[in-house]
């Protein structure tokens, strides 16, 4: 009986021990919590006082921030008085201007540079090199060359004008002419730095500045990679020619600026026309000296009536000849109009040069399809053109030769 009661008693003692230990732990936790609260309450209020000035120190920040919009607010003001002509111009040129750099003209629409290879033409509106265009960089000889306006295009030398300062008002007043500008290697009017005006076939106005030149063997300029490789090979095979390629800087003007300049020029001309002419000052009257009276000579046989001279019939005006002496020269200069003149005069289309090459063979080697087809229409020997096209493996030229009956 005592043995069976022992386990029960042991269990009760264990429970009492556990309860006692738990109670002690609870009392200890409560005591610690109370101590912590008392310490917190007993601490002096030093920290709030020390931290109080922080909001005061940070308070001016909104005021400083508020001042920023006030300082930045006037920025849009300088852009407000821009005239309509400036607002219509492209903003890229104005935005790209940097302090100290030359300011672009506000009425300019576009600007750039171009290198025109010898015998090639330049189209100003597309800024491209090809067969058509506004200016032909004509190579009259190894020492003589000229900028030749094409079609309705015209050129003028801007004597005494600064390239950077010249605007639309000065452009419309230049003395434009369709005559070529240039000469021998003295380069009359085309020395580096020369300023020109160009009125294109489309009616646009551009100012030009001659930047410099490249010789015929130098293909390091921008755009040379787009030229036909066969043409480069033929050019390098010939003796080097100085000043063969010309580099131009150009600025094109927007329509509103040109229209305004033309209107101002028209009003000035109308005002000059409407102004009354100045009265001419009367010339001083000179008293005529009395003429001496000549004594009448006695009549002789020489006083008989003399025969009246009969006027000669006026000679007809001379007709200007063609631009070139032979077909080969026109082909080398890629001058379709000059070639047409020679063919209309019945010049021999297959006349060989000193090396036995015909004009068609040279046109195929230069990859000039326009000139080649013009020669084929005039009856050039298509078999010779096909031999050169096969030698250069030019598929386009071979197709052209097959079109005109080659085998």
Mean pLDDT: 75
Kindly provide the radius of gyration, computed on alpha-carbon positions and rounded to a whole number of angstroms: 47 Å
Main sheet summary = 5 strands, antiparallel
> How would you sum up the global shape?
elongated
Kindly report the spatial arrangement of strands forming the biggest sheet: 1-10-9-8-6
What does this 3D model show about the protein?
The chain has 15 helices and ten strands. The radius of gyration is 47 Å and the shape is elongated. The protein has helices at residues 2-42, 46-51, 53-58, 60-72, 84-88, 91-95, 168-171, 229-237, 255-274, 327-332, 336-344, 359-365, 369-377, 382-391, 395-403, and strands at 108-116, 121-123, 128-130, 135-139, 145-149, 154-157, 181-183, 195-199, 205-214, 245-253. By secondary structure, it is α+β, with helices and mostly antiparallel strands. Among the domains are: 19-70, no CATH class; 108-261, no CATH class; 327-403, Serine Threonine Protein Phosphatase 5, Tetratricopeptide repeat. A hairpin with a 5-residue loop joins strand 8 and strand 9. It has a five-stranded antiparallel β-sheet with strand order 1-10-9-8-6. A five-stranded antiparallel β-sheet has the order 3-2-4-5-7, with no helix packed on it. Helix content is 39%, strand content 14%.
């Amino acid at each position: 009986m005592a043995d069976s009661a022992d386990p029960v008693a042991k269990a009760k003692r264990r429970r009492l021990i556990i309860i006692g230990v738990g109670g002690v732990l609870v009392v200890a936790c409560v005591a610690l919590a109370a101590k912590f609260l008392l310490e917190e309450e007993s601490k002096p209020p030093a920290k709030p006082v020390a931290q109080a000035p922080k909001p005061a120190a940070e308070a001016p920040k909104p005021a400083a921030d508020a001042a920023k919009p006030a300082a930045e607010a006037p920025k849009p003001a300088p852009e407000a008085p821009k005239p309509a002509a400036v607002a219509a111009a492209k903003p890229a040129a104005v935005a790209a201007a940097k302090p100290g750099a030359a300011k672009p003209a506000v009425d300019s629409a576009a600007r750039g540079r171009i290198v025109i290879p010898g015998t090639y033409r330049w189209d100003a509106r597309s800024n491209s090199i090809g067969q058509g265009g506004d200016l032909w960089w004509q190579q009259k000889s190894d020492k003589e060359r000229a900028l030749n306006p094409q079609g309705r295009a015209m050129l003028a030398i801007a004597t005494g004008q600064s390239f950077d300062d010249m605007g639309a008002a000065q452009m419309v007043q230049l003395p434009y002419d369709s005559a070529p500008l240039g000469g021998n290697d003295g380069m009359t009017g085309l020395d580096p730095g020369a300023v020109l005006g160009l009125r294109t076939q489309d009616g646009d106005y551009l100012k030009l500045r001659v930047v410099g030149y490249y010789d015929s063997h130098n293909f390091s300029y921008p755009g040379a990679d787009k030229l036909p490789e066969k043409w480069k090979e033929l050019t390098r095979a010939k003796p080097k020619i100085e000043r063969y390629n010309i580099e131009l800087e150009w600025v094109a003007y927007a329509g509103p600026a040109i229209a305004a300049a033309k209107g101002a020029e028209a009003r000035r001309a109308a005002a000059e026309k409407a102004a009354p002419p100045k009265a001419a000052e009367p010339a001083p009257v000179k008293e005529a000296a009395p003429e001496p009276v000549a004594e009448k000579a006695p009549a002789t046989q020489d006083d008989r009536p003399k025969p009246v001279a009969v006027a000669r019939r006026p000679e007809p005006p001379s007709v200007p000849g063609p631009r070139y002496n032979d077909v080969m020269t026109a082909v080398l200069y890629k001058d379709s109009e000059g070639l047409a003149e020679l063919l209309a005069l019945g010049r021999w289309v297959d006349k060989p040069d000193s090396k036995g090459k015909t004009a068609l063979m040279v046109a195929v080697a230069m990859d000039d399809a326009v000139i080649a087809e013009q020669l084929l229409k005039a009856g050039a020997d298509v078999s010779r053109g096909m031999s050169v096209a096969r030698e250069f493996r030019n598929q386009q030229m071979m197709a052209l030769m097959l079109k005109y009956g080659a085998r």
